[in-house]
Amino acid sequence: MALNVAQKLMKDHLVSGKMEAGEEIGLKIDQTLTQDATGTLVMLELEAMGIDRVKTEASAQYVDHNLIQVDHKNPDDHLFLESATRRFGVHFSKPGNGVSHPVHMQRIGKPGKTMVGSDSHTCAAGSIGMLAMGAGGMEVALAMAGQPFYVKMPKIWGVNLTGELPDWVSAKDVILELLRRHGVKGGVGKIIEFYGPGVSQLGAMDRHVIANMGAELGATTTVFPSDEEVRKFLEMEERGEDWVELKADKDASYDLEEEINLSMLEPLIAKPSSPGNVVPVREVAGEPIYQAYIGSSANPGYRDVAIVAEILKGKQVSNSVSLDINPASRQLLSDMTKSGLLFELIQAGGRLHQAGCNGCIGMGQAPATGRNSLRTTPRNFPGRSGTKEDSVFLCSPETAAASALTGKITDPRDLDMEYPKVELPDKPTINNELLEEPLPLEEARKTELVKGPNISKIPEFEALPDEMELPVLFKVGDDISTDEILAGGGRVLPYRSNLEEISKFTFEILDGTYYERAMETRDAGGHVIIGGSNYGQGSSREHAALAPRYLGLRFVIVKDYARIHWQNLVNFGVLPLEFVHDEDYDMLEQGDVLRVKNLHRTLPATNALEVEVKGKGPIEAKHSLSKRQIDVMLHGGLINWVKQGKAKNS
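RE: above sequence
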């Protein structure tokens, strides 16, 4: 049977289930990735499970999100993470070394391997032929402990790339084109696999740009073949021995097929406040801007920043614009320095920031009130930038640079200049000292965990009751992101290891009274949330499930879920239900009281449930839980399930 790349990767790592769309499968995981906004919980979970040493081929912990040190919390947690990596046998990437995704791709990622990461953009590693998926931290901890990773078998969506990119159009426009066509739900339940003659036109870092933002389509992951471009990339990184060829068989087929003719693309831009709100740049040209932001994991390569420097060479950005340069890695910063192009950016008026996630996650570089920000970042969900009423557009480096020069949104094709050509460095600046190797086992066992005052334990949660009668505390609409459920940024993320404190920010962007109202219901049994379509899109941060659970959330009913948040709800014992009839959403209101009963018998027997709405009658709901997940749910979440030895028997 002819197989595509995604099927080959899954077949080589399949440990349970059938590779049939919708069926739960278990996959052996070779590598894991954690970052500091989510990794603290992962390390605490490893400690709670009594793990002696991780069992993956390679696991790496990056410090890239919480780099601002306004008090003790972030640096204390970084010391904890470093001690935990030494204790458990994990690579440690120091603050300032760069964003996890490009650094992992450069130093550790290998074609043909599987990876899960506690960051939704883990899928970026598909750029070099890996099967890499974002997940909640608890699932990553289990993978580090040697357990399989469970996911519903996705459909494979083949995207045939033909033609060549025109001048002033780059990889960011390719993924924006897919978002223009399909929106933020277009990839749900699918793996996006790129193939065809146009793939060879894209370098490994160009592919990273595209694979990274597959998360914005809601895709399970994105994969590219491992071909000559990947070989060249690994050889430049002095890792040529890690290359293996991985291509689709000649007669391979896909569940869905689509073509993008690269030659027909034009500069595109996502308007506020969704990555799926994409239009041609010329449609919004002329809008004044306050900020042009270059960098992040969605444009992390040398070319992405060098092209901006070439466009700005000998020029000055508009006096009305803050040009923020956010290099994704120290290696990139070093290479730009050696080439002299960093000088051009600074001389043109650029503001240089340290290598890390920074403004992408709302950790600095927030735009001014009521002003437009153009960013090459992957997301523009409401408030993600750190400014509550932000107006953030997503675009390519070329569009951001052209707009910085003019002070208004500008199609780069309208600049009076030839399209610059960028040559990659002959030899990148490689510094392996900033990525600490795991300690030998005996030395690791002697390492004590360093815990500052901001680190608290994960509370114990009770098992799922057989019957619940609870109020609807909050009703939300479509496409609610995890940033809106529990924001990131400099105010919130320092409390990532302190659940009691971080829970105070839950839903604050949408309803500043939620926390107080939730606390009132917690001791009385808890509450319910009602939502629309694509509930929980965006970040993989499990805090967006854990904090509401801590505040008493027991079940959610929505039209449908984003994959990772749905799984995180299960992991912490929050029952994720869906409307059978979407119109029932309109009938429910905040304050309604809902009753579900006989859960211990009903959940294993059927995916259908009746929900009694007091004073209004019954509505039909359903669940999509596997047999294993039902067992997890009945135990009250994954931690209880693991403690009772269930993981060993799954």
